[in-house]
Amino acid sequence: MDAIDEEIIRCVLRNARSTYAEIGEAAGLSAPAAKRRLDRLVATGAIRGFTALIDTQALGWRTEAFVEVYCKGNPSPAELQRDLEGIQEVVEACTVSGAADAMLHMLARDIPHLEQAIQRVREAPVIDRTESVIVLSRLLNRPRL
Amino acid sequence: MDAIDEEIIRCVLRNARSTYAEIGEAAGLSAPAAKRRLDRLVATGAIRGFTALIDTQALGWRTEAFVEVYCKGNPSPAELQRDLEGIQEVVEACTVSGAADAMLHMLARDIPHLEQAIQRVREAPVIDRTESVIVLSRLLNRPRL
DNA sequence: CGTGAAACAAAAGCTCT
DNA sequence: AGAGCTTTTGTTTCACG
């Protein structure tokens, strides 16, 4: 993991569909060398995959919320993960410091759909109660790094 | 925006580096037809771009936080956006309902780096104070949809 | 939207350092 | 181990039906 790898990562972050020639040019390498580096970054797990940035508005998913989760007892992170991964509307979940046990980022079509999804979250055995904050407008959404 | 477009989106969400032949197979189309559809989805903005999923741990960015922002007066979303987009550590920002004015998702190398980045956030003229929650462990991180 | 041909990029080999 | 070069294979991109 050196400066060349970081250039390659910056390049595919900007455009995951870059050709190897383009990636190589960005990193100062030939196309085959760029492919070998990229393959290695995927193999070692530094790059977890390649995905598209979808305008969820265009797809009709217009309602977002951040949800603080308070648990019953002391569930392990793994238990929480198991209960949440079945709920498609939860796009991000982390255990956190502070009063709450976890923070969820949820995405739904509209308020009724969000309400119904939060309801499903609250039905999980380990979850006691939730506190939701509705997103009004999105200011920034950057690819990580 | 029909069922075929949705299949194409599902395919590039799973792997943004799919060939047009693969995308076409997933959507029941020939490769040139798949390319025309994908180009149209990018042109209309339904697909905002293609990016890589980076294991930020592997890159040494191991510290994440959610930061509630309280503003002075009533800044417009555009003003907030202007003040935040210069801070690379802010990966997501939204205005929200509830007591806070905005919610930030921040990513830093370590706690000192995070503290320094939050300090830069607090120096923005429109920002009064912040309340941070540190991420302990990441349970889920799904591509949207 | 599909087909076929030309231009182009990717994959796999080998060589060199 | 890692980079460059070259050939073969496969993909992209047209024009056309």
Automatic annotation (TrEMBL), chains A, B:
Annotated HTH asnC-type domain residues: 1-62
Name this protein carries in UniProt: AsnC family transcriptional regulator
GO biological process: response to amino acid
A Pfam family recorded for this sequence: HTH_AsnC-type
GO cellular component, one term: cytosol
The entry's keywords: DNA-binding, Transcription, Transcription regulation
MF (Gene Ontology): sequence-specific DNA binding
PANTHER family in UniProt: LEUCINE-RESPONSIVE REGULATORY PROTEIN (PTHR30154), TRANSCRIPTIONAL REGULATORY PROTEIN (PROBABLY ASNC-FAMILY)-RELATED (PTHR30154:SF45)
